[in-house]
Specification:
Elements: E1 2-5, H1 10-21, E2 27-30, H2 38-45, H3 50-53, H4 59-63, H5 66-73, H6 79-83, E3 92-95, E4 98-101, H7 105-112
Parallel strand pairs: 1-2
Antiparallel strand pairs: 1-3, 3-4
Length: about 110
């Protein structure tokens, strides 16, 4: 199991706290410091739509100009996500060939049952 995010994100903190409380081991990847490669982003998009992966409520999204937003959402220019990983809704959890985006306690609970 591998979790992607940034450590100071409140939602990531909640997800990590949940996994730790249930003694579920995971590897954490800080994508702000460690970055993301294109094959990884493409693999996520095979199981999750871009609309779910991009956090349109984020400050990073609001800082994009309309051209960048169009390039990402309409043309699928993933280099924008590579350059600004904080555009990605957090956390992203890879588990058992699934990619979960965001934190939902009920969904995480189903992982341990």
């Amino acid at each position: 199991m591998k979790m992607y995010g940034i450590p100071n994100c409140d939602t990531v903190k909640k997800a990590r706290k949940f996994l730790d409380a249930h003694q579920i081991g995971y590897e954490f990847h800080d994508f702000k410091k460690q970055g993301l490669d294109m094959p990884l982003l493409e693999s996520w998009l095979q199981v999750q739509p871009l609309e779910k992966l991009v956090n349109k409520r984020s400050t990073s999204w609001k800082q994009l100009d309309e051209g960048q937003k169009q390039a990402l959402m309409a043309a699928g220019d993933l280099t924008i996500l590579q350059d600004r990983p904080t555009l990605i809704k957090r956390p992203v959890l890879e588990v058992n060939n699934h990619v979960l985006v965001g934190f939902d306690e009920k969904t995480y609970q189903s992982l341990i049952e």
